[in-house]
């Protein structure tokens, strides 16, 4: 599904932050991405989301080599990917409900066809009472859960999440992990970047460990 071959990444004239990355992400797989702060986890997620281009090597996503893709082809690939950014990126002028429903609206679906789905997911992530709240009135943990719900709502083929349990308590972190596990069970490949060892110990998954710019895979 995803293939990296000898991928390197540098920002501007800086040193290579990722070096010689060769790995695959298979359909229906679950992997944690970990490593010390600054090791390149967010950079790797951005390569997977096609918001960064590799400086060298080959990246292929859903069977398409990503260099030279036209903007509409990039957009089509991104519609198959759900992403939870570290800074949430909720739209300020939309309510929690509208933020979560956005991927479905972008796909051209009518509100009547998804109202129940969105409402149920909001309830599942504990935001049932906050559906009509604007993002600036949500707590950090609530924003995080809204961002997670938005990433999951369209049942993407690939889910990327950057520290998705960073702002929630351990009980809620377990609940969110369960949600990711259910999504995985229904066929989505999941990549969760995290520092949280306790979280990783709760789910038997491949570990991608970044250190010194290189990736080590532990199955
Ligand atoms: N836009 C940028 N311009 C220049 N350097 C960058 C940029 N983004 C990241 N870097 C550098 O790339 C390296 C990897 O950063 P990245 O954010 O990918 O690491 P990370 O593992 O996600 O860190 P953290 O766990 O702290 O979020 C760091 O040395 C960082 O300073």
TrEMBL record:
GO cellular component: a single term: plasma membrane
GO molecular function, one term: transmembrane transporter activity
Keywords attached to this entry: ATP-binding, Cell cycle, Cell division, Cell membrane, Membrane, Nucleotide-binding
One GO BP: cell division
Residue ranges constituting the ABC transporter domain according to the UniProt record: 2-219
Pfam families the UniProt entry points to: ABC_tran
Subcellular location: Cell inner membrane; Cell membrane
Keyword ATP-binding attached: yes
Membrane topology listed for this record: Peripheral membrane protein
ATP-binding recorded as keyword: yes
Recorded superkingdom: Bacteria
Function description: Part of the ABC transporter FtsEX involved in cellular division. Important for assembly or stability of the septal ring.
SUBUNIT field: Homodimer. Forms a membrane-associated complex with FtsX.
Similarity comment: Belongs to the ABC transporter superfamily.
NCBIfam families cross-referenced by the UniProt entry: FtsE
Protein name as annotated: Cell division ATP-binding protein FtsE
Biological source species: Blastochloris tepida
Record lineage: Bacteria, Pseudomonadati, Pseudomonadota, Alphaproteobacteria, Hyphomicrobiales
């Amino acid at each position: 599904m995803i293939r990296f071959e000898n991928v390197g990444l540098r920002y501007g004239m800086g040193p290579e932050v990722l070096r010689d990355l060769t790995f695959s992400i298979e359909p229906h797989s679950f992997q944690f991405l970990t490593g010390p702060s600054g090791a390149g986890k967010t950079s790797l997620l951005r390569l997977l989301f096609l918001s960064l281009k590799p400086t060298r090597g080959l990246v292929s996503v859903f069977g398409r080599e990503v260099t030279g893709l036209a903007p509409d082809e990039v957009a089509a690939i991104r519609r198959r990917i759900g992403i939870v950014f570290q800074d949430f990126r909720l739209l300020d002028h939309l309510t929690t409900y509208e933020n979560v429903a956005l991927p479905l609206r972008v796909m051209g679906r009518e509100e009547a066809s998804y109202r129940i789905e969105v409402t149920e997911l909001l309830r599942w992530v504990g935001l049932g009472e906050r559906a009509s709240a604007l993002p600036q009135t949500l707590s950090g943990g609530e924003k995080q859960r809204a961002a997670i719900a938005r990433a999951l709502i369209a049942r993407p083929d690939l889910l990327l999440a950057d520290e998705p349990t960073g702002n929630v308590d351990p009980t809620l972190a377990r609940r969110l992990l369960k949600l990711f596990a259910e999504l995985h069970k229904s066929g989505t490949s999941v990549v969760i970047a995290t520092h949280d060892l306790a979280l990783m110990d709760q789910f038997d998954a491949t570990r991608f460990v970044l250190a010194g710019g290189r990736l080590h895979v532990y199955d």
